[in-house]
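Page 37, top half.
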Amino acid sequence: GGHYQFGHAVLLVGYDDSQQCFKVKNSWGTWWGEGGYFRIAYNDVTDNIKFGSYAVAASGIFVDGEGQTEEVTVSNSGTGTLTVSSISSDKTWLEFSPRTLSALSPNEEKIITLSVKDWNSVTSPGETAVLAISSDDPDEPSVSITVKAAIPVMAARPMLTISPPFYGNISTASDGKTQIEVSNDSGETFLDVSNGGEGTMSWTTESDNSWLKITQGIAGTDYGRVIVAYEENAGGMRTGTITVSASGAVNSPQYVKIRQTDMDMDADDDGMSDSFEFWHGLDPSNPDDATGDRDEDGLTNLEEYEIGTNPNLEDTDDDGMTDGYEADNGLDPLVYDGDGSSRFTISDAVTALRILAGMNATPAGTNADADENGTVEMKDAVFILQEIAGLR
């Protein structure tokens, strides 16, 4: 009996008798293990199965988890003295000790200890490094050993996750980093920091440019919002980077680029400024998007730019009428029409007046029929207008 709490889910999906293992899917996602899967040995009798590692197709040596070490034995099986001239690795995260070996007499052995110096430098789970040992052995003067950094399945580590604002101006830069497009005017944007793993995660943030200032969220624990203020840009297009770091966490550090457009130019000559297009997720190099209607409110993107409405919101002022309807009927799509205290809106009054003028047929169940007698009359229009104005 009692209360049990688990960190994440795994699912046993199959087995492989030839490798003597079960195949298991991990809820952490495809970035982890073998595309989101790992294997569990059920009979440790084969050379390519290793208990406790997320990877089983071993090639060389595993270094499992933080603080763990493995050993390489260098032995002289010849009859003369063996001189090791160099020991090196192609990855900075692989630590080996000692860095040099003295000469080995016949039948003498020496140990090289391996470990992962910095897990933040391991770019992906199961990344490999090559340890190269050179000597005066006439038959094999150079030996290369593959070393894999394997995070154990049960390792409890925090995971740094960064979420940019859910705007249309988010993209991926050429170097793979998340990029936020902002206008040339001064303003603010934000990032949400969260811990997607286990344990406590302390994080810090920094900006690499003076025109980008972190006004909230210099540091935090597990979850928090980072607010970034950017200055007005009077020159050409520029890019700065916000770095979020969490020591010991998976996916740390994370980089988010802030790209700010230059003075309000119109590179594609479509009538909309580049900053407006950047900010609202349009393409400043494509003139055809001027005639598009992203939010399907009856206004083109160019018309939304000219009026000042949001091309991604069909009802910018949130008064229950689409921007296109308000523009077509002489209303202001940037101003809420009605105080919200009535069951009627200005749209009902406009409908009533259009019906009375013979411009509209009377739709069934229309709210323009205030007294619900089946006929839209002048008294209905007057009643609706008075109700909206708060005179009733």
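Page 37, bottom half:
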Amino acid sequence: MERKNHNLVATASCEGEGGGCRERMTDDRLSNLPDHIAHRILSFLTTYDLARLSCVSKCCRGFCQSTPFLNFSRDDGMAAADTCGRHQRLLNSLERFLLLRGDHKVQRFRFVWSRNQRSSLSCICRDVYFRVMSWVHKAVKCNVEEVDLDLFGLDDPILDFPSSIFLCESLKSLSVHMERLILKILRLAYPRGIKNLNIESSSLESFTLFDPQHDLDTLNISCENLQQLSISLRAGSPSITPLIIFAPNLKKLWWRGNLMNHPNLGKFQNLESAEKCGFDMGYWKLENLAFIHELKYFTIELSDGSNGVKLAKYILEWAPKLKSVVVICSPQNLEEVKRKLAKCKMISKAAIFFKERRGKPNKDSSLIGLCLV
């Protein structure tokens, strides 16, 4: 950060009659500090105080406008502001401050807003939300690492939270607290730097996780109204342990990549279809999945070198309501697959159909289709 040399402040004093004025030099301690230490000190101030300090002290203006910690709370700036005009001026001041700081790095962006319950004004509340979302987008451009939002007292019945923030490669922590936050669709594509992913929502209906980086260790999904779940893991990525999914109303499941060693998938009582490719088939023998007992239609495409035959045998032996099974494999393996499946003890009277695969298969992976209806 470039800043002017304000390390010394000169003051003049005169001593004695006819005495000459002499200049006394005093140190400006804040300007003498390294940037990271000064920023750490300023991190305890709110953005409102930073804006005031940058106007009062020229030597601190550079520090205030480049600090990576932005903390704003309505109560810190104008606790008694109960008019639309005062609210508007407060937000305008904050917006000017963010504009002046340019593209300096933002490590933490925190915004707290709670409207006075005695106020009947609602127009400003909508303005607050859309302004904050624009500031969040600006923080994303400045490689923000932590975002913490507390927004209460907003009158909009539905406030859609932008999913684009999850595309921020530098984002490490996101915390959102709102009274009426409705997030129905969430897509995370190529997320980086996230080790623990915890999602709890009563409104989320569709969640997609696409090719996360290898540093993702824990995945916890608790969404009672989730209906569609799609997860795609990178080839060669290690298993995620633990995996906990609570989605009692899940209808469609799609998974590509390695499945976890000891996952807790819960009971998908309303599951209608599931597709899975590229995972250890031994998992199915270790887990007593509830939907297996309701399975009616099963399709599997076997790739060369995969152990998908074991899964097919498991389905035939443990799915009592099974009506139809379709097995797709290469022409050279067709007879061998038939012999292996003929040895299993079927629990149902399902019809088995074999088809020759056309085209080049994916190496060491199988494609599976399940249907309960």
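Margin note: Residues 282-373 form one domain.
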